[in-house]
Design a protein that fits this description.
Blueprint: H1 22-33, H2 41-54, H3 57-70, H4 74-107, H5 112-115, H6 121-126, H7 144-195, E1 199-202, E2 210-213, H8 221-225, E3 228-233, E4 239-242, E5 251-259, E6 262-266, H9 280-307, E7 314-316, E8 319-323, E9 328-336, H10 337-346, H11 354-380, H12 399-428, E10 435-437, H13 458-467, E11 470-477, E12 484-492, E13 499-507, E14 516-520, H14 523-541, E15 549-550, H15 559-569, E16 579-580, E17 585-590, E18 595-600, E19 605-613, E20 617-626, E21 633-641, H16 653-662
Antiparallel strand pairs: 1-2, 2-3, 3-4, 5-6, 5-9, 7-8, 8-9, 10-11, 11-12, 12-13, 13-14, 15-16, 17-18, 18-19, 19-20, 20-21
Helix pairs in contact: 15-16
Length: 664
């Protein structure tokens, strides 16, 4: 084993290299030996001799020699000590002068001339002589009664101090008890709010204060920051929600529908019904959330309206206005909730368009919530590559889908009404044609998509289908065989779209082209084109070739109608399939205008026939001129209307043509 070694446990004392300064030495001497007046040469000699006898002088002398050897620059130390001595001497002189001035000023009241010699000029200038005096007062002797009074007073003060301390302790205990009760009540209400599902967190700028997140994290930054309110404690511990400088009266978005200047529909204000167990704080949080949502909704509606000005949407006087038809318009504004509730109470009877106004109000709120969900999904996905180009925030499609749907429905209903009138008009003339709509599901519905994203809920997919372009297909047949038309009504209110567009694809036997595709942007254009096509088809279905032709050869005419019309035209005929031996040779001259001409070989006369088709009427106008009798003109006119019923006695187009051919 190695040799044992000792390890000291005491800390090593490090000797300081710095010596004490002269003021410290003087203070030490005064503390140890008293004043310098008591130090004499004889006393120092006796002390040195005593230390030498005791054996301590040698070590002290050795320490002095060692400390002297450690000094590198004695001259510098000498000058430093000299400057310190001069500084202290100067300070002592100044203090002595102050004392002399004080004594001289005190004696100036009694011997002014003598003390002026010892006063400094500054004191003479600033302080007048005799302003300070000295008087000798004899302190009265303290008696036994005075001492007893002092003891009694001191005991009274002590008792009063103890009583005050006890009262303070009791007050502190009471205050602490109230504080504990208030804190318990506050935290219980905070816990109740958290258990309801609200997010509790610290305020960003007040870390010591709790707040509740009642806003939407996916909203615009100005509304996202306002969605955090402080949960502050009242005087008695009750909790109240502090919205800060953003507190404002609650307002809601209102939808009104006006027709010819009269209000025919008003939306109900959106509100949440609470039960009796709901606290006032939670009700206020719900109200703050709804008000913030309504403000963001109106803000986004104004942003979108400015982008849709080209589609007829107007913003004026803090209102948004757009037209549903020529006589009906929709107004969107934001009013206090009390005003909206008052209007609803005044209108006791339901207005005819309340359901439409409520549907528009619900749709814009659903679409804003859908936009928040899309923002959340985009934020939680893998971010795109960093680009120098700043990403612009597009407007939310809130009004656009509703307006597109309403306009599309209006155009589709108008088109169906137009086709219904034309078809019924032709039916009243004995001409059968049909039309219908394609009620198949759109290709972009979630159930029909082959690569549908399974992570997107079905409800959001249905809302996405509502955001797509509105399309409706209408198809029908003409009178001629193998002649048909297909109309696609497409409504798109995008920034670069043109609104509603009608695309018609036609196959008509009388046209030289196999198929014709036309696009129209207004109702009048598509209506004129449809009337033109039906007129052209009617003109070419009228029998116009010479030779023997049966009456039943007219397309679109049934055998029952042929039998009835033949019997009504000539009662002497017994065969339904009786032929016309001397048939007129009809030939279209201006088919686009509905004009035909015919030469009657057996009667030496020319006939001019004109077909005039409107949406609600069909006119067959015939003018006949005889070649033997100059100046004789025969005018025949037949009219069929859309409101003509089967019970009314009327002739068909086939019978009218036969009468025209048989007329003289």
């Amino acid at each position: 084993m190695s040799e044992s070694f000792s390890l000291p446990l005491r800390p090593v004392r490090k000797k300081t290299d710095e010596t004490d300064t002269l003021p410290i030495r003087i203070a030490q001497i005064n503390a140890q030996r008293g004043s310098f007046r008591d130090v004499t040469e004889e006393s120092l000699s006796e002390e040195i001799e005593a230390l030498r006898v005791s054996g301590k002088q040698a070590s002290d002398i050795a320490e002095d020699i060692e400390s002297g050897n450690d000094t590198d620059d004695k001259e510098q130390q000498l000058f430093t000590s000299r400057s310190e001595m001069l500084e202290f001497a100067t300070q002592a002189q100044v203090e002595a002068c102050y004392a002399l001035d004080f004594v001289s000023l005190a004696l100036s009241k009694y011997a002014p001339r003598q003390v002026e010699l010892s006063m400094t000029p500054y004191v003479k200038l600033k302080i007048p002589g005799g302003s300070l005096g000295i008087d000798k007062i004899k302190t009265p002797d303290q008696t036994e009664a005075d001492r007893r009074d002092i003891e009694v007073v001191s005991k009274g003060w002590k008792l009063e101090s103890f009583s005050s301390a006890a009262n303070n302790l009791l007050e502190a205990a009471t205050r602490l008890q109230k504080e504990v009760a208030a804190e318990t009540k506050y935290w219980s209400e905070v816990l109740a709010i958290k258990e309801k599902g609200w997010k509790i967190c610290r305020l960003p700028r007040e870390r010591q204060t709790l707040g509740v997140q009642h806003g939407f994290l996916e909203a615009a930054p100005v509304f996202r920051d306002r969605g955090l309110s402080a949960l502050r404690r009242g005087d008695e511990g009750s909790l109240y929600v502090d919205q800060g400088i953003y507190a404002s009266p609650p307002r809601v978005v209102r939808i009104r529908i006006q027709e010819d200047g009269n209000t025919v529909g008003v939306s109900q204000p959106a509100c949440v019904k609470h039960d009796s167990n709901t606290s006032a704080q939670e009700t206020f949080i719900h109200q703050a959330r709804d008000c913030l949502f309504e403000e963001e909704l109106f803000y986004e509606l104004n942003r979108e309206a400015r982008a849709l000005l080209r589609h007829g949407i107007e913003t004026r006087h803090n209102q948004i206005l757009f037209h549903l038809s020529d006589s009906r318009q929709v107004l969107v504004d934001m009013v206090p909730i009390d005003e909206a509730a008052t209007l609803n109470q005044d209108a006791t009877d339901d207005l005819p368009a309340d359901d439409l106004a409520h549907a528009i109000a619900c749709s814009i709120r659903i679409l804003l919530t859908h936009a928040h969900r899309k923002n959340h999904r985009r934020r939680t996905q893998i971010p795109t590559a960093i680009s120098v180009k700043k990403r612009q925030t597009a407007e939310y499609p809130l009004l656009q889908p509703s307006i597109a749907y309403l306009q599309h429905r209006s155009h589709t209903q108008w088109l169906m009404s137009c086709l219904h009138n034309i078809t019924n008009t032709l039916l009243s003339a004995g001409l059968k044609c049909k039309y219908g709509t394609n009620n198949a599901l759109p290709k972009d519905l979630p159930g029909t998509l082959p690569n549908h994203n399974k992570h997107i809920p079905l409800v959001e997919s249905l809302v996405e289908s509502f955001l797509n372009t509105q399309e409706t297909k209408v198809s029908g047949d003409f009178l001629s065989p193998n002649s048909w038309y297909k109309i696609l009504v497409r409504t798109d209110l995008g920034p670069t779209a043109l609104g509603t567009e009608f695309t018609i694809r036609t196959t008509l036997a009388s046209l030289p082209q196999q198929q014709i595709t036309q696009r129209f942007g207004t109702r009048e254009d598509i209506k004129e084109f449809l009337i033109y096509l039906f007129t052209l088809d009617i003109v070419h279905t009228i029998p116009f070739r010479g030779g023997t032709k049966t009456v039943s050869s007219l397309p679109g005419t049934s055998e029952r109608e042929v039998a009835t019309n033949t019997h009504g035209a000539d009662e002497d005929r017994t065969d339904i399939r009786t032929t016309v031996t001397e048939a007129a040779i009809w030939e279209p001259t201006f088919a686009e205008n509905g004009e035909l001409t015919a030469y009657m070989p057996g009667k030496n006369s020319n006939k001019k026939l004109r077909v005039i088709l409107n949406e609600d009427s069909l006119v067959l106008h015939c003018m006949s001129m005889s070649s033997t009798e100059a100046g004789k003109v025969e005018d025949i006119r037949y009219l069929w209307t859309v409101n003509q019923t089967e019970e009314e006695s009327h002739v068909t187009l086939q019978e009218a043509l036969r009468r025209i051919e048989n007329s003289e």
